[in-house]
Amino acid sequence: MTPTAGPESDQKGDTDAAPWWRTVLRHDVPASLVVFLVAVPLSLGIALASGAPIAAGLIAAVVGGVVAGAVGGSPLQVSGPAAGLTVVMAETINQFGWAVTCAITLAAGLLQVLFGLSRVARAALAISPAIVHGMLAGIGITIVLGQLHVILGGDSNSSAIDNVTQLPGQLMDLHGPATFLGLLTLGILLVWGKLPSAVRKVPAPLAAIVLVTVLAVVTGSSAERVELPGNVLDLQFMPQLPEAAWMEFAVAVLTIALIASIESLLSAVAVDKMHTGKRANFDRELIGQGFGNMTSGALGGLPITGVIVRSSTNMSAGAKTRASAILHGVWVLLFTALLAVLIESIPLAALAGLLVHVGAKLVNVAHIREVRKHGDLSLYVVTVVGVVTIDLLTGVLIGIGLSLVLMLSRTMWSGVHAEHDGDGYRIVVEGVLTFLSVPRLSAVLNGLPEGSTVRLELVVDYLDHASFDCLHTWQEAHERSGGTVLVDEVGHPWFRRGKDGSPIVRRDRAGVAVPRFLAPWSEWMARDGHVPQSANAAEADASSTQTADAAQKNGHHPGAELGAGNGGGAGEVAIPGQRTGPLHRGTSEFQNRTAPLVRDTMSKLAAGQHPHTLFITCADARIVPNVITTSGPGDMFTVRNVGNLVPPHDTQASDGASVWSSVEFAVSVLGVSEIVVCGHSSCGAMRAVVGEAPAGLTALADWLEHGTPSLRRSRENAPVLLGGEEPAHPDDALALHSVHQQLEHLRQSPLVASAIERGQLSLSGMYFDVGNAQVYLLDPASGNFEPAGVQDVVQTP
């Protein structure tokens, strides 16, 4: 029986069935040993770079494994002292001393616990990745500049600028043994990844430190070594509150808490991407990191964070549960207690070489490329420069400040484009139009010649009062000078509502505007105030012409009312002699907006057509084949008739010739690979077949006789299901049977049957529920129709 207690299994697979202890023994114990071997040298090196006691790095490694590993919300993440905090810790220790620094670490941990309890963990992820990567790169550069001095046998300075200026003098005064050991460590780390896989099973940091330490011991090198206290396990309560400078103390606490939290959360996100098991609980992870830092600070250790180097090593070594992270801390404790003499044999230059390698890897070229691709390179560079030349907190704050400025500029940006349009001008304004864009907008508009015809296209997500006033004032002035302004608003009618005096020029009250390529003419033109919902094209022409004539008789220029009736559509006032019916306005819309986008595609199709599908559907105006199939020009050869009917192939009726001539042309000449028959809901033809055709329409009645086989099929066969249910209306039920019947008529054609037999053609059934905008596909196995998007496209044999 599988125990119910013990470390949870966070990975799928064999851990689901195996007892937890077997999973720990098989996967987590070996992984913990590998992580332990990586953690020891890194912890020593980070303590060295921070200017803290060497033992502080080991204490932090133990606490990070045992406490944060047991409490945290990212089970496979491994915590410990992190390179990302070395610069901050060096400055803090230099300012406050070690005892007060321990108190700062403890207080930062308490603050992290409060962060976790308040459930704000995900808010830390709102910081731009460019700032985070820039911060890490700045830390890496600072570490490299400082530890180069140690490799060369000197001492690291707290200032990166001082490290740079003093580096030439350090190069002139080399300390032979230390320099040799440091460079040898760096060389081993660089070539280790190119060695055979059997050798690479030993972690590179461990191999480099062990080899260089053995060499130093064998040769009796005089290079400076690690120093540990006489009794490493003699732990005391270290924190001590400062006697003054409480504001600086609070800033240091907040800085360490924020950096440690962000680095831990980012590491947890990265770990989540490396496995398919249980996702991290970010709030719990912050609580775990907080308890870890409180414990580490109390015992005299460095601050801890989730460390991606150790965590990725843990994953690569096959860890399955949090037991691996906990055990790695136990191994560090045992190693420190029992083999302290080995630690004291390690040359400081070797640890410096390890840190130079770690710091250089923090400057990730792949991250730079990614940041540059997203247009945030300036953010990255500013953060790096700030961290290196000033300090980490200031550099990050500068980066955050710049990110806010960039966000504001991008949010408030609007593109203003001007171009000649025949005898007039076309001005396109895109984005968010606010007071920030008024200077440029005014410059473009005021530069237009007096008396010219201007088409102003507003493709804006928001328009504030300042920009509305700019447009309105310019429009009135331009029209007084004899010019014409045609305003075309695409989307929400900000400008029109402003001219109407409506107080709804607010983004939070903006309605949803249907794209014009989906909305019927009657809808987007009615929003313009030009065409009533029920008006037909002739009424629209007459109404528009009368409006224009009346305006001229009154001595009022038609453009003066511009925008007053402008909604989500074109918003243009008719000019005498210009056709303004829906069809003509639709073609104008195509030429102005769509034609430039599809011209390249159409030019490729000019030489001939090569459609892949013959699409047979109803002539119903609500069915738009290219919309419901997301296809474009050249994709489908379409046949439309009342009721999407295919007369029997052997029929003698002449009215079937149109359908079959199209089928023959599509199959024999165009070589389509698929024929689709598409029915739909609320079909008037099916309603007429179930009942009777409207009186006096003899041609329609004759044509609908081809629906009789479908009616007979519906009465003789079981109901066809639509999404698992029978349609509520008889005409919809008949439409489903009709699709089956038309496909059967197609199979009776020798031409179609032969193409199917050769594997060159397939038949598919489709049904469109108009009211729900849902496409259904015929499942040949069951004979029923299933919703598209739930299953793949199915074809009848």
Automatic annotation (TrEMBL):
It catalyses: hydrogencarbonate + H(+) = CO2 + H2O. It comes from Prauserella rugosa. Its EC number is 4.2.1.1. The keyword Lyase applies. It is an enzyme of class 4 (lyase). It is a multi-pass membrane protein. Residues 562-571 have a biased composition (Gly residues). It comes from the Bacteria. The keyword Ribosomal protein does not apply. Keywords: Lyase, Membrane, Metal-binding, Transmembrane, Transmembrane helix, Zinc. This is carbonic anhydrase. Binds 1 zinc ion per subunit. One of its GO terms (biological process) is carbon utilization. It is found in: Membrane. The chain crosses the membrane at residues 29-49, 56-76, 96-118, 130-154, 174-192, 204-224, 244-271, 291-309, 329-356, 377-408.
